[in-house]
Structure formats: structure tokens, C-alpha cells
């Protein structure tokens, strides 16, 4: 794991000390099914069942660096899958923050919850369901991160984000960074050239 982290630092993907500290504490191998565990430290996505993958380390690193999670924040992780990224977020936000990890495929929800139990987090709420349906009230989350690609930004997610908050969401083959400047307006940056599984709205 340490070699993978060093490679991501050297390549400029991992930069922020708090994010790097979390990567050093959370072992990706703890989130990977036994049949592919030997590839845990490769910079590649891996199958986790039901046609889904644990994301590629460099993409998780890039998205976390764009999100800039901070201690004490409330973060929504849509498409939590294996639970790896949720664990990284929980480590960064700490006991004063919280992570809502939501996954719509029941088998993967169980897998992710089980994996997260290997760490003694008290700040993760795991939910089985559609992350694009309303979970909390408007303006609840400081940050939102989505692991599957949509055609447009779901209105519910725009509303759940607080003013001043940041959302990272793949739209088709681009990663979008949205900063909410007031209840109706967002500053948007786009990073092209990524492949994600589809965001399914139930
Ligand atoms: N961060 C996860 C990981 O590394 O294991 C990513 C898993 S995968 C790339 C994306 C996940 O999003 C899949 O498990 C898929 O079932 C889930 N997903 C797709 N649409 C969803 C939705 N509307 N609500 C919740 N989960 C969704």
C-alpha cells in the first residue's frame, strides 16, 4: 500500500497531508474480495461483484483532492460500493464529522458495511438505497461525492448541498466540480476523459 501511495504522490495525484494520512491508515486490501486481493495495491479498478468495481486508486485520489474533505464536515458518498472511499472520508472528517455512505445494490451494500466494520468508525451512516433520492434536508451536506456517472446533476443532490459546499460528480465522461454559490447557482469546473459505471436512479 505504501508503494502505491508513494507512486500517487510522485505522479501528483495525492497532495494534501490529511488525505495522505488517511490513505496510510486505510488498507485498500481490506475492501477487496479474496479472489482479486492480490491486486489490491495495483493502480487499477477491480471487480467487487454485481458488475461493479472498486474504483481505480488514482481516480479516488484525484476526486478526493478535488473534494478537499475537512475535519468536522458532513459528507455524502453516493455509490459507496466496497466502502473504501467511505472509510477514507470517515478518517479525514474524524469524530466531529460524519459520512453518509449510500449504495443501491443490496449485495454491495452488505459487502461495504461488512468491510467498514473492520475499522471502528462511529461516524459513518450506511444506507441501502438510491443516493439520488432525498436522504436529508436541503443544505445538510458540506460536500457530496458521487462514484457513478449521470447525464445531468440530480436536483436532489444540488438541494442537499449547503451554500458554499462542493460536489464532485461524473457527468458522462467528465468529472464535474460544482461549488454552490447560492441556492440556485453553481461554479462549475470540468475534467474530461474518465470512464465510470452508470448512476442508476430507481
Ligand atoms: N467508491 C466505490 C468503491 O471504490 O468501492 C465505488 C463503487 S462503483 C465505481 C460505483 C457504485 O455506485 C456501484 O456500486 C453502484 O451500484 C453504485 N450506484 C450507482 N447508482 C447509484 C445510486 N443511484 N445510488 C447509490 N449507489 C449507486
Structural domain count: 1
Main-sheet strand order equals 5-4-3-6-7-8-9
Number of helices: 6
How many beta-strand segments? 9
Strand % is: 25-35%
* Alpha carbon gyration radius: 15 Å
Helical proportion, percent range? 25-40%
Which whole number gives the mean pLDDT?
Answer: 96
Shape label? globular
In words, what does this structure look like?
- 40% of the residues are buried.
- The protein is α/β, with parallel strands linked by helices and 202 residues long.
- It has helices at residues 2-10, 17-25, 57-67, 84-93, 106-116, 155-160, and strands at residues 46-49, 52-54, 74-78, 98-103, 124-128, 141-146, 161-171, 174-180, 186-192.
- Strands 5-4-3-6-7-8-9 form a seven-stranded mixed sheet. It has a two-stranded antiparallel ribbon with strand order 1-2.
- The protein has one domain: Vaccinia Virus protein VP39 (Rossmann fold, 3-Layer(aba) Sandwich).
- It is built from six helices and nine strands; from the N terminus they run ααββαβαβαββαβββ.
- The mean pLDDT is 96.
- Residues 48, 52-55, 78-82, 84-85, 102-105, 108, 130-132, 147-148, 197, 199-201 line the site of S-adenosylmethionine.
Helix/strand layout:
Blueprint: H1 2-10, H2 17-25, E1 46-49, E2 52-54, H3 57-67, E3 74-78, H4 84-93, E4 98-103, H5 106-116, E5 124-128, E6 141-146, H6 155-160, E7 161-171, E8 174-180, E9 186-192
Parallel strand pairs: 3-4, 3-6, 4-5, 6-7
Antiparallel strand pairs: 1-2, 7-8, 8-9
Bound molecules: S-adenosylmethionine.
